[in-house]
Amino acid sequence: MSYYLVLIQFFFALVALFLFWKSVEYFIGMWRYKKFKNMPLPPTYKQILLSLPHYLYLPGDLREKIHTRILLFIDQKEFVGVKMKITDEIKVVIAFYASLVRLGFDLDEHDTVATIIIYPKDFIVDQSYTHNGIHANKTSLLAGESANRMVVISWQYIQHHISSESKENVIIHEFAHELDLEDGMPDGTPELDTFASYPRYAQAFSNAFIILTKQVKRNLITKQAAFLGTYALENEAEFFAVCSERFFMAPHSLKRFFPDIYEELRNFYRLDTDLLFDKFSS
Fold first, then answer.
1. Number of neighbours of residue 176 by Cβ within 10 angstroms
2. Is residue 129 within 8 Å of 157, Cβ to Cβ?
3. Does residue 280 fall inside a structural domain?
4. I want to staple 78 with a disulfide (CB 3.0 to 4.6 A). Which of 115, 181, 210, 216 is the partner?
């Protein structure tokens, strides 16, 4: 009997320790938030932000909110440059788009990324995979990758997407992957607010993914398929990441081509980007 009593006491001690640690994390987080909320944005940061079209269209209240998020992001995340120097421009641009993705979430919600590794150009990655029971290795040239609370991205691609006002954005793409990975499964379904949301979300994404995949296999490239690109059809995880890119970079077109997907992403990200960025009508 005493053995079970010791186990119970040990269990409650672990629970108490866990709750204590979470409360410490909470108070440290709130202290940081208050510190940066009252801190003015450095003039160099403001100049960099003024060069980003999405920043210019944010209303005043969301600008103030994202200012705090950017300062917190730069303070808390580790930036690692590979054969390149990490500048204020690199940190602010990445922090802005990463914070834009989380702008509708609570401060500590869906905040898992700890490290951002930046390459000057695309980078080579050795990958292994299994298909029909056959294991193989391949070498890929990538613009971005994410795993284990770490995002790896190419600065060259970031600059290209911004300067060309592209419907693509490698920062949003990779941070969307991290949101998808929060539940441990890279399946294109992030952690939703309620269990009741999953069937509707799955129907919207699965229907579009299956239909587009069948069309592309028959070499039928519709306007919808061209808008997302064939890379979106690699798997469900890429489909979610690409749709997330379009949700922020070309919301009007996403809503026109895929209204059900737009609605699900609006609910998930808690932002109406079509209304917010109505100037992006491409």
1. 27
2. no
3. yes
4. 115
